[in-house]
């Protein structure tokens, strides 16, 4: 019976995404559908799947892997001090939005959750509906990070400010109740370890971080397909931290979450994260969600009158506890998205399961109360994503054009700026020559500056650009400003060097810093050689309908996909794939990998949309 139940669960896990795709069910995350299917398959309805020892063990591994991957999703760069949450250009195009970073918003929002959870727990205690004040506070303050991540991933929002804000609120909603549960069990439990032993979790995490910090710097040189050292390291971290957490009386999910944070700080490659996602979301995590539904016996739970009374009350409490986040999110995001984000953070299931499991073992909660908390949590997982998908729409700041700033207005840069302005680019030019300003300011958006010192450029917002082109004739000035812009944090810097001697002196240094350099005579030579060797090059360059584009693939929807299976394969022609600085001549069977740079031709109408799709991180 063990094997039959497991086969049914795995078949259901395979079938659910296919059915959702077939019938275009986009309003609910896959994880929620898996819980619902588990209820259908379990004793609540069909009763063809039972919870066995092996399935319970796999489910436990599933929640551990889920919390590990949740820790791996945190973007710690958000915690670095920044000059502004938005650049001046983004502020202007986004309607002068307040400068609230995702970190500040998430701290404010979850602070309101804690306050409301305390008030709700007090109300339940005074009314006599649920007397354990601290347990209720922990339960009302939980947020299901796994479901939130799944919803944000499906909307491709994890790389955007809104997505990172909701993610961080959810991280607090998982981590703080987790710590609260550990303290609750340590104080009120009879077999718990001393509280100071909990510090061992952080001590071991710090030791592992220091010990393996150089790991990803050298493992690529010795890694083979039969060793998969990065995956072995990941599972070593999981098992170590889970063992330490259980040894000191904490929950295993706390150890798993900390292990994910440790691996994230070790800065693994995207391929490592993709393979861990494949293992987790491809096997263990679906088993956890489906078995969660199987474990809910609605026939037993709904027979109690008190349970039927508590279910809507607990559901309302889960939702009300998150309402304060609405006014916090409105500080930066539009009203509809504030509603959507507030609704999504009201989802709770993973931590509720963990909390109730501990509470049952401590005998501080009845089975009726536990069932009511679980069903109310399930309702949030159904209702909240529906509200989120109904109200969410792209923020203005997510639709900002790529900012390209040119330093130097001359015959080489002005025509390029004129062409770029016709596309999805916001172009500004700067010159320190009054004569050039008089010549070009009517043809392009040129601003006159007294000098090009790094301090003045920074003060005037010139470095607040996605792409900075240093097209000045003074090569030494370009070199100095390129390094200053890199220190400031400009994403892409393109530098012109007409003096080959200066380029020879600094080329290796600039390339090592990730700065792109070019030399006009060499570019002309390369173009002429291309015309001789490939006459069609001229046709592509002169074509007014089509053009050549380059894009770096960071959208996981298009990674590990053959070129012939891309949904827009008929609209573009991919001529080259650049992978690890090596050029690959592709064919239809070539597999696109994360981080690949694609050189392709396509129509000027379709190409920008395709580039944006490929370059949108999720």
UniProtKB/TrEMBL annotation:
Record carries keyword Transmembrane helix: yes
Subcellular location: Membrane
TM stretches of this protein: 45-72, 107-127, 133-153, 165-188, 194-212, 233-266, 278-296, 308-329, 335-359, 371-388
Main location, first listed in the record: membrane
Membrane topology designation: Multi-pass membrane protein
Family designation: Belongs to the monovalent cation:proton antiporter 2 (CPA2) transporter (TC 2.A.37) family.
Lineage, uppermost ranks: Bacteria, Bacillati, Bacillota, Bacilli, Lactobacillales
RCK C-terminal domain sequence ranges: 536-616
Keywords: Antiport, Ion transport, Membrane, Transmembrane, Transmembrane helix, Transport
Listed name of the protein: Monovalent cation:proton antiporter family protein
InterPro entries xref list: Cation/H_exchanger_TM, Na+/solute_symporter_sf, NAD(P)-bd_dom_sf, RCK_C, RCK_C_sf
